[in-house]
Amino acid sequence: MSLNSFNNQEKSEEKVKAVVLAGGEGLRLRPLTYYFQKCMIPIGSKQKPLLEYVIRLLRYHSITEVCILAGYKADQIENYFDDGRRFGVKISYVLDAFNMKGTACALLNAYLAGVLNENNLLLIYYGDILTNLNIKDVLNYHKEKGATATVVLSMNYPIQVGIAELSNDFRIVKFVEKPDLKVPVSIGVLVLSGRVFAYLKQMWNGGYCDLDIMRDLIPFLISRNESVFGYVTSSFWYDVGTTEKYEKLPNYTIEKELSFLF
Fold this sequence. Notes:
CATH topology: Spore Coat Polysaccharide Biosynthesis Protein SpsA, Chain A
Mean pLDDT: 87
Number of strands: 17
Order of helices and strands: HEEEHEHEEHEEHEEEEEEHEHEEHH
């Protein structure tokens, strides 16, 4: 069943609200995350928390209402950012519910708590991602398409192993070390119409919830013939989600790509 009954007037009234996913325990970043919430690890020569770059990027693109979905070491986030006034934004916090696991359930939990609603246009941002993406362009694209969901994609994902091309007798005829994977991959940023909450309620059985945005919600929307679009970008982006990636993130890259935020 499609929920495309919302008319253009209702769509135009959707209020943009950023939703930052910052509740994970950061298992791939251990032992750092024994001490830090993963989005609070210090980066760059300024040693600012990763999340500060996210908040500053949102503010740079005039998004001033931010909902942080938190859980593990949430106090670190709230103690640093408080209500967001220092950064020119208004921040609300929703803590993970004990019976809800996964990013889609965290989103549903914020809806049930009354912090998010159907009239919101949701800019979803995974809290361990760095990017200089033009968020205004993504939002405009989403609106022009009349989309239910818009997933930001990159065609330049460097894989961490070498790729061999083999002949019929298994002779290596070509070898490329750590090439870019030329397929569209999600960079951890997407836009959702507030009407997805109706779908989330359909997917939830009313008890324990274990749903993921990318694994469960996006395929569900596609299966219901909702308009799900990809926005392909060549912008800088970096997933800081593992200890190896964190150690290999040079200060000069951050200064080059993100200094405009300061």
